[in-house]
Predict the 3D structure of the following.
Amino acid sequence: MEKSFQRSALLLRTLSVFVFFIPVTISVPFILLHGIRDQCSNGGTRSFTQLLSNLSSSPGSCLEIGNGEQDSVSMPLTQQASIACEKVKQMKELSQGYNIVAQSQGNLVARGLIQFCDNAPPVFNYVSLGGPHAGIADIPKCTSPVCQLLRTDVYSDYVQDHIAPSGYIKLPNEMSKYLKHSKYLPKLNNERPNQRNSIYKERLTSLHNLVLVMFQGDKVVMPKESCWFGYYPDGDTTPLLPPQQTKLYTEDWIGLKTLDDAGKVKFVSVSGEHLQMAHDDVVKHVVPYLQNHPTLLS
């Protein structure tokens, strides 16, 4: 009987060790940040969020800022990022970490959330769809009064405080005005020489993966290579520099080079116009970064 007890105890210990190291999966949630003139309640945004959740088997939700469509145009991006920060910190389901998918202008909110948000849960993977990360130099096919203001007075306090895209318009021939008066992108990209913040770099380089999707037929983000952090040299509109030749990359202002050297940046080019992503491309380039991650029981 004593030997039987010893054998049972040994088996129990063996099973305990085995169970202790059984790999399991945890469901990592994601949030979607939509672009300008959109809102979470719109059919297309709801459908895309649900599609990503269905394909990845991960819970996901669209994070709304203010009233959605109107505030996406008129609320300064600094304020949008601040609201997103507070909302994320209040979402218990994100407390252990989460992934981000962002569309167009929503990517600048996403990066503000990653780089500026204090005491926030970690972001593991970040998928950027058509994000103007290095700025835009033009607003094509837009003749509204808002666009006229952006073309004629973009670096005034009034426009910076009342029209969201003013925060990432970067005119190569007006770099001194841009660096002095633009209230969002120069900070986000650590472009001001005497104001570079190493915390922004540390937070961005904590990502497990950064997926940068550029649309080959994009006529909204100008130049489209901004989606990869490519842009024009200061003071000129030629040549168009690939990301690896920009100062942001070579001097590693925000950690893009660090991430790339570690193999954590995916530069993805897909066919289609702005945000017009084929289903197969979603499956290939987005879904893998939202799927469950293995962990160990402890």
